[in-house]
Amino acid sequence: MSRDVSLYSPDRSTERSQELLERARGVIPGGAQTNSKSPSQFVRGVSPTHAERAEGSHFWDIDGNEYIDYLMACGPAILGYSHPAVDDAVRDQLNHGSMFSLPHALQIEVAEAMVELVPCAEMVRFGKNGNDVTALATKLARAYTDRDVIATAGYHGWPDVFLSASDSARGIPAGVGEYTKRFGYNDIESVREIFAEHPENVAAIIATAASAETPEDGFLEDLRELADEHGALLIFDEVFTGFRFALGGAQELFGVTPDLACFAKAMANGYPISAIAGRRDVMQTLEEPGVTFSMTYAGEAASLAATKATLEHLRSNEDEVYGRIFTVGDAIREGFNDLAADHGIDHRTSAFGIAPRVVTRFTDAEGDHDTHAKSLFLQEAHKRGVFLSGSHIPSAAHTDEDIRHTLEVYDRVLKILAEAIENDDIEERLEGKPVGTSIRERTGDR
Ligand code: PMP
Predict the structure, then answer these.
(1) Residues 5-31: what's their mean pLDDT?
(2) H, E, C per residue of 135-173
(3) Cβ-contact 166, 197 below 8 angstroms
(4) Ligand 1 pocket member 353 (CB < 6 A)
(5) Which is the closest atom of ligand 1 to the Cα of 157?
């Protein structure tokens, strides 16, 4: 892949990006549709704000600058952007139509494929966003158990049931949060307390099997055991981990099977679709009177064709795809940490997490989250063609050359950060507005 801008040249212009952002601000509150892609997550005035095209592991911004991408559309592009097998399947389907007045048979084919691949899946329903199915999972659990309390940790989308018990609860009446109880990831005692405080009334525990943090030994098994002991359901939010951590999701990787699981991002390599999968008896609650889940666009055939093609590709190239994702993630995490140590700042920054999502952390001298240090890192990485917002989300399309370029850039960028820490002038080096907190951080997910 040719590069029209030298990787090491920090003098790229993002002028058109900044112009577009101004225009966007006039008609789009927040300037973007997805929190994690919004200007507040990057260095405003320096980072690109709008993408024009993408291929494999790279994208080009509206000014024509090329980037190695580690955000990968927030997770969906597991095979890489513009993957021919997936995009051809979508084009073929479009020749026959994507929306009909009756369900298309692809719904059954994809549901059957998921039943074969996902340990907990006996039945499947589709939605369009992760939110659709995480909210449905809590509703199904409440209807099935005839109980109220949802025990939750981390980020599961913006439905009231989750955000009512977070720092992002404006616009949600206070009473809505009465039955939503938050626990700490990897803190099994905090889950036990919820069961103790609400005997016979916990409908479900919902958790990501792994997110920024990986499960400590026994944590997921203990969640399973607690749920069983108290007659509650265990729901895994696999919106991010599904088909990414392993073909059967994080539940397969960690060997703990939930009652229900929610999928979205990686299942269709970027096309809009989500799914809830789980135990037959729980899923059949949807057939009972008074339990409603319905939407016009669920079952739209182009996204189902994309899912079918993605799952087929993942299945027939399983070792290659997951081998690559783990190779890339491990190399970036180890490389980042070695470089931070070489530059003497490993007490101020580190990379951690399991390979399919490697997170960077920047702290000040007191050990608190340091937004300015993170902003300086992002600013200098973006200027040199490595795009991330904090995490690294590897795809099957990231090459050894990408890893090499990335670590060369990180060497330069961490050197700059080390000098800034030494001179105590991080803030003065920022050429734009620093990054803000993300909704994930506000729900305790990082
Ligand atoms: N759960 C998790 C773990 C997620 O990462 C996300 C999206 N970032 C969601 C739920 C919500 O999914 P969506 O944005 O597709 O509605």
Answers:
(1) 85
(2) HHHHHHHHHHHCCCEEEECCCCCCCHHHHCCCCCCCCCC
(3) no
(4) no
(5) 11
Residue 351 host element (H or E): strand 349-352
> Max Cα separation, the chain?
67
Read off the pTM: 0.96
Quickly count: other Cβ atoms within 10 Å of residue 218's Cβ.
11
Please state, in angstroms and rounded to a whole number, the distance separating the CA atoms of residues 397 and 401: 11
Please work out whether the CB of residue 389 comes within 6 Å of at least one atom of ligand 1. Answer: no
Determine the distance separating the centroid of ligand 1 and the alpha carbon of 131, expressed in angstroms. 6
Q: What is the 3-state secondary structure (H, E, C) of 209-272?
A: CCCCCCCCCCHHHHHHHHHHHHCCEEEEEECCCECCCECCCHHHHHCCCCCEEEECHHHHCCCC
Centre of ligand 1 to C-alpha 99, Å, is: 25
C-alpha separations of 113 from 22, 74, 110 in Å: 45, 24, 5
Backbone torsions φ then ψ of 302, nearest 5 degrees: -65, -40
96: left (phi over 0), alpha (psi -120 to 50) or beta: alpha
- Is residue 35 lining ligand 1, measured as CB closer than 6 Å? no
How many residues comprise the chain?
446
pLDDT higher than 60, residue 446: no
Question: How do residues 343-399 score in pLDDT, each as one tens digit?
Answer: 999 999 999 999 999 999 999 999 999 999 999 999 999 999 999 999 999 999 999
Taking a C-beta distance cutoff of 8 angstroms, is the pair 313, 85 a contact?
yes
91 in Cβ contact with 246 (< 8 Å): no
In angstroms, what is the span from residue 101 Cα to ligand 1's centroid? 29
Answer yes or no: are the C-beta atoms of 70 and 391 closer than 8 Å. yes
285 lines ligand 1 (CB under 6 A): no
Token pair in block for residue 309: 């093609």
For residue 331, with 0-12 CB atoms within 10 Å meaning exposed, 13-18 middle and 19 or more buried, which class applies?
Answer: buried
263 touches 133 (CB < 8 A): yes
Q: 438 CA distance to ligand 1 centroid (A)? A: 13
For residue range 103-146, what is the model confidence (pLDDT) as tens digits? Answer: 999 999 999 999 999 999 999 999 999 999 999 999 999 999 99
Output the pLDDT for position 1. 41
